[in-house]
Amino acid sequence: MTTTRQLGAALKALLVLTVLCGVLYPAAILAVGLVVPDRANGQPVVVGGREVGSALLGQPPSGPEWFQGRPSASDSSGDVSGGSNLGPSNPDLATAVAEREKALRAANPDAPESIPADALTTSASGLDPDISPAYARWQVSRVAAARGLEQTRVLRLVDQQVREAPLGFVGQDRVNVLELNVALAALGRG
Predict the structure, then answer these.
(1) What does the pLDDT read at residue 54?
(2) d(CA 121, CA 93)
(3) 3-class secondary structure, 118
């Protein structure tokens, strides 16, 4: 009789936990996702009725007239997420940073001397959609020249796109590259 009783209690617990964890919890999460659809749907960025990307995923570089995101260990493909896992003493990391620095200097000859760190290092996920305001400002001369715009006008656009750190101290100020490029496209050419 004791075994039958224990089996009955185990089955009741299984049924209760199945309903709680397999039905009610997923239904609650789905309800939250429906109430906050932009977050649940990946925050699509729509321009002229056409989806141009996600505000949550970095986009691959596409030309000198656009702001570039951080380097990506996964080439911003989206199907793989992860950094290179190279430590600061790894010579491969030093080589990669030196190559990025050389390429950035060649593509941005009029940029300030000091290159921001996020321009040289990959993000942890390889899909980071944001860059530092310093890196966005560092690219202004190249973008303005490629578009035939005044640098002050492009710089003002960058400053308008800066998102401050949450609560003023959690994380860092940042600029979403896709949203900046959408605003740049709306600004037009010189």
Answers:
(1) 81
(2) 9
(3) helix
